[in-house]
Write a structure and sequence with these properties.
17 helices, mainly alpha, about 85% helix, single chain, about 500 residues
């Protein structure tokens, strides 16, 4: 497949995933509002805290997801069908083992943390324990589903992936709406049970689709010790990085639950919902790009591989900024429009996490580039080691009496340090030119931020703070950011490419 055809496939899949993103984001944000209103701030915070405690034990699974996607894509890149079947069967075996480990860890260490460390009101303990058990069941089902999810993405069946995601969002909305006619005392319990049921339905969708469409997911091949060892070693090193990821997501969540009452966890949960919604802007394109990135490395097409790293980092960041700038500036109004009543700290949490999302957008292709090489030991030791300092440093700040937002400032600063570590490691691994990366990726992003953000902020002061004003501001801010990206964010060849495409479209319209 030529580079042009590969780019067209990425573009097609990106469009499908953007449609998915819009649907999932709109439904998801409305669902969060309904759930918050139905449960109340305290119960919503308890669900986020207890569910996060269970998710903390899935770090092994997160590592295996990276390993499964990498090995399946590598097999597809080489066109080895028999090897694909072995890889998939091995991945399923490993995920069964992971599910058992999650169960053991959650029922031992998890129960101890739940009963001895979390600040949960005494009268809420029985229902919180039920939430804990249902959250654990949900997570175990997710663990067993992930090999099938990885196969769908690896085969670039983005229409199917998007459809299943939308179905899951609709089912989750149905769960939220079903809470409204229920008595207050039963809502948290019902929410936990029905959320688990939704995960079962989604797991069945993936299972039957993969069995029907992909040969590697049919039957069970003989256990292959060599593949098991190779995938386990790869996942083991991934686990260092994933452990860091779990520490700065659920670890910070648990940390907040140890120092503050559940309303702070509720604010954190809502802020993360906004962050996840905005991050979908680049995550969807990344899902489309990753198979091409991994497969181009497997084919030894290093020119296309390097080009994809640079362009993806820059374009992901620009896509994020188009949305993050107006949301960050008008966050108080947007959150009040969305939630009605604002939990304390949610606005400052959202603004800091939007900055973190920008760092993630830049870093995403670098992480996938490291995975493509298969030699990930040093990368995860160094980068994971840097990221693992987030929780200890945040703990020190909280112990010294700093406010809740201090943990997210720590998160942001250390994420930037980790980006620097990624560049240094990849310079050694794939001969990535750090100077070229800074010149062609980092500096254009900085130019756009220091020009578009102040301009949009000044404009915001002259536009009314109502719904019509917000729409006008969002449009104006997006135009300003897009214009700045065009003027100083992209190079001459990229501008020429855009002009040519616009000319083609205009000619077709005139014809």
């Amino acid at each position: 497949m030529s580079a042009s055809e590969q780019n067209k496939r990425i573009a097609k899949n990106s469009i499908l995933l953007y449609v998915r993103m819009i649907a999932v984001m709109v439904i998801g944000l409305f669902t969060s509002r309904v759930v918050l209103q139905a449960l109340g701030v305290e119960d919503y915070g308890i669900y986020n805290l207890v569910g996060g405690l269970v998710a903390f034990f899935t770090v092994i699974n997160a590592a295996m997801l990276s390993a499964t996607q990498r090995f399946i894509n590598y097999g597809l890149g080489k066109g080895d069908q028999s090897q694909l079947k072995v890889i998939f069967s091995t991945a399923c075996t490993i995920h069964l083992i992971i599910a058992a480990l999650v169960l053991v860890l959650a029922e031992t260490i998890g129960i101890w943390l739940f009963t001895h460390k979390l600040l949960i009101p005494h009268e809420k303990l029985p229902v919180s324990m039920l939430v804990f058990q249902m959250s654990m069941s949900t997570v175990i089902i997710q663990v067993l589903t992930l090999p099938y999810n990885a196969v769908v993405v690896a085969h670039e069946k983005m229409a199917v992936f998007a459809t299943i995601s939308v179905i899951q969002s609709i089912l989750s909305l149905g769960v939220a709406l079903s809470l409204l006619p229920t008595s207050d005392n039963e809502r948290l319990k019902l929410y936990a049970i029905l959320t688990c049921c939704v995960q079962v339905i989604i797991a069945l969708f993936y299972f039957f689709y993969c069995k029907a469409k992909f040969n590697e997911s049919r039957g069970w091949v003989k256990f292959n010790k060599a593949i098991f060892k190779e995938m386990s070693v790869f996942a083991g090193w991934c686990m260092v990085g994933c452990s860091a990821g779990m520490m700065y997501t659920q670890g910070l969540n648990i940390l907040l639950g140890m120092f503050f009452m559940p309303y702070v966890n509720a604010a954190r949960g809502l802020a993360v919902t906004v962050q996840n919604a905005v991050s979908q802007i680049f995550n969807n394109v990344q899902i489309a790009v990753v198979p091409q990135l991994l497969q181009s490395y497997a084919r030894k097409d290093f020119s296309y591989f390097s080009s994809l790293i640079f362009k993806s980092s820059k374009y992901f960041s620009f896509l994020l900024l188009l949305v993050a700038v107006p949301i960050g500036i008008r966050a108080p109004y947007i959150l009040r429009l969305w939630l009605g009543e604002l939990p304390e700290y949610v606005v400052v949490f959202v603004r800091i996490l939007l900055c973190v999302s920008l760092v993630d957008a830049i870093s995403g292709p670098l992480m996938r580039a490291s995975d493509a090489t298969g030699d990930i030991k040093k990368y995860h030791l160094v980068v994971g080691g840097v990221l693992m300092t987030i929780v200890p440093v945040a703990y020190i700040f909280l112990k010294l009496g700093y406010p809740p937002q201090s943990v997210f400032f720590v998160y942001l600063i250390i994420s930037i340090l980790a980006l620097g570590a990624r560049l240094i490691i990849l310079r050694q691994k794939i001969h990535l030119s750090v100077r070229a990366y800074i010149t062609n990726v980092i500096l254009p992003i900085i130019y756009v931020i220091i020009t578009a953000l102040p301009t949009s902020y000044i404009l915001s002061q002259y536009i009314s703070f109502d719904f019509v004003g917000f729409i006008l501001f969002a449009i104006a801010s997006t135009i300003i950011t897009a214009a700045v990206i065009y003027a100083c964010g992209i190079n001459h060849d990229e501008r020429k490419f855009i002009k040519d495409k616009v000319s083609i479209i205009l000619n077709k319209i005139h014809d």
